Amino acid sequence: MGKLDLSNCSIVIPVHLDCKERREHLQFLQSYFDRCFCNHRLIIAESDEAFSTAKVSNRGAALVQTPFFCKCDVDAVVHPQAIFDAFEKLKNTPEVSFVLPYDGYSFNVQDPLRQEIMRSFDWSLLSLVGNKERDHMRLKNPTLGRLTGQMMK
Predict the structure, then answer these.
(1) How far is CA 77 from the centre of its chain?
(2) Distance between CA atoms of 4 and 119, rounded to whole angstroms?
(3) Tens of pLDDT, residues 102-127
(4) What is the band of 131 on the pLDDT scale with cuts at 50, 70, 90?
(5) Which of 49, 54, 84, 103 fits a disulfide with 4 by CB distance 3.0 to 4.6 angstroms?
(6) Cβ atoms of residues 41 and 72 within 8 Å
(7) What is the mean pLDDT of residues 73-96?
(8) Which string of b and e fits 112-127 if b means at least 16 CB within 10 Å?
């Protein structure tokens, strides 16, 4: 898979680097975005104090200078195609304020599999975790919504 174009999009990662795993995850996310995407701006919003996700996210969002931004949790990774599909849907649907490239399923991936995925970027390894009959790694229809909280089909 070639790099996916996220022109006009900033990536905001709020983080409190309170343990070794979070530092590893941040390094992985930086590599992930550099390896999987092009033409984006990465903004690391770091907190040195007790972590308030909303406060640190807002501080990162204030640095955004692009029409669109994506907030990413340092402890979660979404399949690159799902992020790209969500971004394209947001770009091409003006009445939509936000898109979630997530369908509610997540994996708690433990070592050594976590380390192997971070080393190899091999998304197929996630098939070793969870329900193998369902494709949890790629959301076909990202959730769309307005800032009022109303969901759109």
Answers:
(1) 5
(2) 20
(3) 666 666 677 788 888 888 888 788 77
(4) low
(5) 84
(6) no
(7) 86
(8) eebeebbeeeeeeebe
73: nearest Cα among 88, 95, 51, 93: 51
Contact 8, 85 (CB under 8 A): no
Q: Where are the alpha helices (DSSP H) in the chain?
A: 20-36, 53-61, 80-92, 113-120
Distance CA 82, CA 146 (A): 19
| Strand-pair partners of 76 | none
Alpha-carbon span 126 to 133, nearest angstrom: 12
Output the six-digit token pair for 91: 């770009």
Mean pLDDT of the residues in the chain: 78
Question: Are 99 and 143 contacting, i.e. CB atoms less than 8 angstroms apart?
Answer: yes
- By DSSP bridging, strand 98-100 and strand 68-71 are unpaired
CA 130 to CA 150: how far, in whole Å? 30
Q: Supply angle C-alpha 37, 39, 45, rounded to 5.
A: 80
Query: String of b and e for 66-85 (b: at least 16 CB within 10 Å)?
Result: eebbbbbebeebbbbbbbbb
Q: Which two tokens stand for residue 13?
A: 């990662």
Q: Which residues pair with 106 in a beta bridge?
A: none
Is residue 113 within 8 Å of residue 72, measured between CB atoms? no
